Amino acid sequence: MSLLPSEPTEFIGFVAPREVSETHAPRGPVIDSDYLRLLAQAHEWGGFDRVLVASYSTAPDPLLIAAEVAAVTDRIGLMIAHRTGFTAPTVAARQFATLDHLTGGRVAIHAISGGDDRDLAKDGDHLTKDERYARTREFLDIVRLCWTSQTPFDYAGEHYRVAGGFSEVKPVTAIPIYFGGASARALAVAGRHADTYALWGETQAQVRELIGRVRAEAAPHGRDPRFSLSVRPILAETEERAWARADAILAETRALRTAKGLGPAGAPQNEGSRRLLAAAAAGPRLDTRLYTAIAAETGAAGNSTALVGTPEQVADALLDYHDLGVRTFLIRGFDPLEDALQYGRALLPAFRDVLGRRSGAAEAA
User: Fold this and answer.
1) What is an example of a GO molecular function annotated in this UniProt entry (predicted)?
2) Whole-model pTM?
3) Which of 69, 140, 207, 315 is the most buried (most CB within 10 A)?
């Protein structure tokens, strides 16, 4: 894969309205405005391109949290998780286009169909996973029509029927759509709509295989998506200390799960988690730096694999994925604020330095 200036690498961080992680029970009020401001600004100061605002059934509203992030920062982009199906697509399209204007074009959407039936049931959604992906396809069809159509449009699908749909407000520029999901139904939606396809931190072999499948689904639509990898860097001054820190994080994760009365994680419902657990079954350390033990401990409930080492070693590992076609890295730590600061001070500069040296060597060859 050529390393061209026209293929910029994007770094996305993660913000939440209070401190919580696999190693920290929730601290502070449900919405801690001071913590949210510090976390958002730490990412901006560190040179991140965007931050993800997550969504789950009991969380504060991600669109409103994203608006607050924009208010306390100057330039950083917003990757707003949105569960398709809970808001009419015409309404959602206008909401995101409006926020895009108010923030000067900083909005992106991470379209979520939902991988856990129990969590979705809390919001009254009882469709099957396949039905949710079909709904997502229609939802995104309509959202794109709202953003681009210069005249009213009609749409007739299984889940949505729109007569004379139109939005006066259009995005500042095209709002990027991020999308993940590894099942066959998910990949079909990705091929049709994903501007960036999101993978979790799998092995290099798994990433290579899945990128190929997504490209095959996108080709009939004349589309060429970017690819994102989500991973949890664990850094230290030496490799030995980094692995010791990884082991300590695993121990803290186990202790917190025990304190919460959580037993062994059950079988996951989504294909992405199953793929992570398949990797973990091959061992806790793969591809030199990929650490899977925390994914195994938690049932791979979300982004839970790590890259372990010094900043330069982890940067090298990220570049290995870059060579496979990954151009976006979604990274977050187990100590969210402290790790975001460390990534900005050490990991992002190390990555750019290694990428620059590799690009220079490739041009000289």
Assistant:
1) alkanesulfonate monooxygenase activity
2) 0.94
3) 69
Q: For residue 128, what are the contacts with CB-CB under 8 A and spacing of at least 6?
A: none
Distances (CA, A) of 32 to 11, 16, 51, 52, 331: 25, 9, 17, 17, 22
CATH number of 10-231+309-364: 3.20.20.30
d(CA 189, CA 168): 27
C-beta separation of 98 from 80 below 8 A = no
Rounded Cα distance, 151 and 145, in Å = 10
Domain chopping of the chain, boundaries: 10-231+309-364
Per-residue buried b or exposed e for 124-150, using 16+ beta carbons within 10 Å of the residue's own CB: ebebebebbbbbbbbbbbbbbbbbeee
Separation CA 125–CA 114 (nearest Å): 10
Closest to 78 (Cα-Cα) out of 98, 55, 95, 99: 99
195 vs 28: CA distance, rounded Å = 36
Angle in degrees, CA 31, 32, 36, rounded to 5: 100
- Two tokens, residue 123: 């919001």
Query: Do 211 and 325 form a contact (C-beta atoms < 8 A)?
Result: yes
Secondary structure (DSSP) of 91-139 = HHHHHHHHHHHHTTS-EEEEEE--S-HHHHHTTT----HHHHHHHHHHH
What is the DSSP-derived secondary structure letter of residue 166? Answer: -
Total residues belonging to the chain: 365
CA–CA distance, 243 with 276 (Å, rounded to integer) = 20
